Amino acid sequence: MPAGDWRLHAVADDALLGEMTIYEYDFPWLYAKLAAAPAFAPLRPLFVEEARLARSDDFGDAWEAAYARVRAAAYLVDPDGTRVPEFLLHIDGDEAWWRYSDEAFDEE
């Protein structure tokens, strides 16, 4: 299991949005508790909407648009301090789960 806390930062100003402490690893998903920083509050609605759509029958264009807003607002940093190039992150309350790649996907 990847050790250490992962961090979520704001794209706009690099502000720390929160730290995530992993409690379960079920390849390829990591599950963690989110300790949200005050800077997370304005972005929480983006994550609420994304998680709602991910669990709904509208998983498609609406979800993709919601997730694009999440990715435009936040980035993930691994325990070594490296910005993660590709990830799929869901946050619901203080629960976070994600999968990631160390390499950027080719957008062709």
Task: Give a concise summary.
With 108 residues, the chain is an alpha+beta fold.
Low-confidence stretches: none
Give the helix level as a range of percent: 10-25%
**CA(first)-CA(last) distance:** 32 Å
Strand content: 35-45%
By DSSP (H or I, 4+ residues per run), the number of helices equals 2
Shape estimate: globular
Tell me about the largest β-sheet. 6 strands, antiparallel
Order of helices and strands: EEEHHEEE
Mean pLDDT: 93
Which class of secondary structure composition applies to the elements?
alpha+beta
Number of domains: 1
Q: What Rg do the Cα atoms give?
A: 13 Å
- Strand runs, count: 6
- If strands are numbered along the chain, what order do they take across the biggest sheet? 4-1-2-3-6-5
How would you explain this protein's 3D organization?
- This protein is an alpha+beta fold and 108 residues long.
- It has one domain (6-101).
- The chain has helices at 44-54, 61-73; strands at residues 6-10, 16-26, 29-36, 74-77, 86-92, 95-101.
- It has a 6-stranded antiparallel sheet with strand order 4-1-2-3-6-5.
- It is globular and about 35 Å long.
- The protein starts with 5 loop residues before the first strand and ends in a 7-residue tail after the last strand.
Secondary-structure map with pairings?
Blueprint: E1 6-10, E2 16-26, E3 29-36, H1 44-54, H2 61-73, E4 74-77, E5 86-92, E6 95-101
Antiparallel strand pairs: 1-2, 1-4, 2-3, 3-6, 5-6
Helix pairs in contact: 1-2
